[in-house]
């Protein structure tokens, strides 16, 4: 009897296990939880406060009601010490986008997705002037006049730098002794002025143009500290104003610095402020408006 009961219990367990197996096999598999979409960090390259293109971007951030310091602390902004550094960041794809000048984007072959409207920032005007302490003021003025010639403005036009002064005819060479002419110019003029150098020296064989390209703020400081400079070309009025005694007593030149030779200052060319992206635009940046929305999401 006991053997029969044990046999019945064993059979009951076998049928129970088989039923569980069938139930497990027919039960629908649980769907995996959807993966959370990762928010990609947007990194904007711009010039620092000494760089005119960076100053223009700071104004653009204000235009959109964005807090630059908060965005920098959040890791959304990286700074370059001049506009060429920012351009290189875009070329190398180390940033999502960069705010640079149109001329730099063209020279570097970058894709421009948007151009800032005129009401978003102060004008990107390039003033130029002979320096008061120039050792060769006549030669400096002659070169500045050449920069207004049709030949020079055609070079500027290749990268869409717009002439802002009436053209002047090309003057004949008058130098009898060799002159080293020291020209301090904004980094964004590197390609154009390098091309113009060979053109000008062919017409004036006794002149050697010695360029110093950097951010306008750095160049202004070097001039103020006594660096040898015959001609200064800034990428914004601010740095020139800081050296111009005609602006003394104002916020533009509170220290009354007097480095600009009277009567030589002109507005040479104008530029544009653009939003440039790396090849392939991996972060799909399409406009200043869209970038502002992305940054507002971070700023909160």
The proportion of strand residues reads 15-25%
Give the CA-CA distance, first to last residue: 80 Å
- Order of strands, main sheet, comes to 6-10-5-9-7-8
- Level-1 CATH class name of the largest domain: Alpha Beta
Number of strands: 11
Indicate the percent of residues in helices.
Answer: 25-40%
State the helix count.
Answer: 11
Which radius of gyration do the C-alpha atoms yield? 32 Å
Note the overall shape. Answer: globular
- CATH topology type of the largest domain: D-Maltodextrin-Binding Protein, domain 2
User: What is the H/E string?
Assistant: HEHHEHEHEEHHEEHEHEHEEH
Poorly predicted parts: 1-27
Summed over residues and divided by their number, the pLDDT gives a mean of: 89
Biggest sheet character:
6 strands, mixed
Counting structural domains, the number is 2
Q: Mind telling me which CATH architecture of the largest domain this is?
A: 3-Layer(aba) Sandwich
